[in-house]
Amino acid sequence: MPDFDDLLAANQEYAAGFTQSGLDGVARRGVAIVTCMDSRIDPLGMLGLKAGDAKILRNPGGRVDHITLEALVLAVHLLGVERVMIAPHTKCAVASNTEAELRSRIEESAGMDASWQSIHVVRDQLDSLADDVQKVRTHPLVPETVQVGGFIYDVDTGLLERQY
Questions:
Q1: Distance between CA 29 and CA 56 in Å, rounded?
Q2: Which of 22, 27, 116, 157 has its CA 20 to 30 A from that of 52?
Q3: Per-residue pLDDT tens over the stretch 58-84
Q4: How far apart are CA 26 and CA 77, in angstroms?
Q5: Residue 1: per-residue pLDDT
Q6: Helix (H, G, I), strand (E, B) or coil at 63
Q7: Residue 95 parent element (H or E)
Q8: Cβ contacts of residue 109 below 8 Å, gap of 6+?
Q9: Cα 41 from Cα 45, distance rounded (Å)
Q10: pLDDT, position 38
């Protein structure tokens, strides 16, 4: 089993040149980004942002669920967010597999039954994105002044395409 030594060593190097002390947690560029947990996505880099500019919310599929909505309400009212970008991506595992396929792969990896574990798949990525944009736009604690957009991030080109 690999330990964390490599990551802690990298953290020591990072901390030696750390220049972000004193940031207050407010999104300086007024942006919240909801995207997938996929490691091919660099939310700040893809938009030319840096630490302190945006709130980043990640989960499988880049979906807007109740936890994401809670975070967005906090971000809008307490952390300077005025724009919300919802950006799932191409080649997403939860959008290109069925629940049964993902569950089977998990069970094979775990060596045990995983029927009890929830796995939320995305049957139609554009329909789900439209629903997620609507959830944020119509939430009673998200003012109409907050701009909400739905985008698809292409993991092969690095481009975002606005859908909603």
A1: 12
A2: 157
A3: 999 999 999 999 999 999 999 999 999
A4: 10
A5: 63
A6: coil
A7: helix 93-96
A8: none
A9: 9
A10: 98
